[in-house]
Amino acid sequence: MKKTRNLFILRGKEDLVLSVLDELLFKGLSVFKEKQISTEIVKEVFRNNKSVACRDVAEESLKETAIFITVTEHNFSCANSIQTSAGNIAEQFACIATKHHCDIGDHKANSSGLGEAPKRSDCPYCRYMDDGYCDRDIGLHRTLYRSKNFFVMPTIGEFIKGYLLIIPKQHVMSNAELPLEVRQEFLTVLEDVCYMLQLTYCTSNVLVWENGSGNGGIGKAKNSIVHSHTHVAPSRLDADSIETFSHFPFERISYEDLHLYGKNSYLLIRGENDEDWRINDNPNLYIPRQYVRQLLLYKDYTFLPDEIWDWRHHPFVDKIKETCEEIQAALLKHWDDVPQRIQQNTKEFLFKM
Ligand SMILES: [Zn+2]
C-alpha cells in the first residue's frame, strides 16, 4: 500500500521552486511557499493524512525521512529532479512520488470533474436497473436480492468471494440522503445479506462500509460511481483495526442519525454491531481512492499482487459469477430453512443466471 503523510522538500533557485510549488495541486498534498515551516504545521497536515511539499522545515529530525527534490531550469541528471523547462511539472512530481511509493492523490485539474450533481441518465447503477438488472458490460444478471428500496449484487472488482454491495434504488449520493424508514429498511437488508454470507461461506466476520459522496456528488472524481452503495465483504479486518491503522478520528453514531452527515463526503464503517457505526466526514481529510479495498487487500490478501484493489483494471468477472452461483446454491440447498423475507426477495433471481 502506498504511503501517505510524506514530506517533500524542494531545493533550487527561489523563483523556480516557487513556480513549481504553484503547480502541485494534488488532493493528498498541502503546499507551503514560506521559506521554512514549523513542525506543528507538518504534524497538522499529517493528521489529515496528507503529504507536505515545502522549501524547508525547522526541525532537523523531520529531514531524516524527507524526500528532497532538486528544481532546475535545464536538464540535470539527479535522482529526484524537476526540470522547469521540460514542462509537465505536476507529472514530473507525480513520477517522483510514485518512485518513492507515495500516494499524493489525483491532480485536482483531473479529478474534480463533477461541477454539478451527476445525472441519473449518466449513472451506471440506474442504467443497470433500467436494463432489467442486467449488466450490459459483462452480459450478466448479477443481482441476488431485491427489496422495496434496495438491491444486492457482487461488486465489480470482486477480489474476495462473497463481497456484496447494497444499493438503494433511488439515485442518491449517500445513504445519508435516504429518509429514516428507508434507512431502517437498509438495516434489515444488511441483516439478510449477513445471513446469506453465513449460510454460504460460514462466516460472520464481515466488514461493512460506505464512502458517501456528500454535496450532491459535486467535486468527486470524474469517473467515480457516486450513486450510493454500501460494501459488505467477508473479512477479518474490522473497524477497530482500521482506526488503529489509518489514525483517522472516527465519531460514533447511530444509523438513525446518518441524515446529519449528508453535506460532506464521508467514510462510514460498521463497528461491532448495528448500534455501532463510525464516521469521518472531515472535508480536509485525504482518503485515498478505494481506501478500504486497499486495506482489505493489504491485511487479508497479502499474497495477491498490489493494485488488484483497483476495480477498473481488475474486475474479477469470474469471481462475480462464482459468488452468485455459490450464494444461490446455498439458498436452494437450505431453502426450507431460509427466512421467508429472504425467500421473497431472492426467488426472482434464482433461475436467471
Ligand atoms: Zn443512479
What would you note in describing this structure?
The chain is 31% helix and 16% strand. The chain is of the alpha/beta class. The protein folds into two domains: 7-111; 120-349, HIT family, subunit A (2-Layer Sandwich), CATH 3.30.428. It has an eight-stranded antiparallel sheet with strand order 6-7-8-10-9-12-13-11. A five-stranded parallel sheet has the order 2-3-1-4-5, with helices on both faces. The two termini are 36 Å apart. The relative contact order is 0.13.
How would you summarize the topology of this molecule?
Layout: E1 7-12, H1 14-23, E2 29-31, H2 39-47, E3 51-54, H3 60-63, E4 67-72, E5 81-83, H4 89-99, H5 108-111, H6 124-130, E6 145-146, E7 150-154, E8 164-168, H7 180-201, E9 206-212, E10 230-234, H8 239-246, E11 251-253, E12 266-270, E13 277-280, H9 291-300, H10 317-333, H11 340-346
Parallel strand pairs: 1-3, 1-4, 2-3, 4-5
Antiparallel strand pairs: 6-7, 7-8, 8-10, 9-10, 9-12, 11-13, 12-13
Helix pairs in contact: 7-10
Bound molecules: zinc ion (ZN).
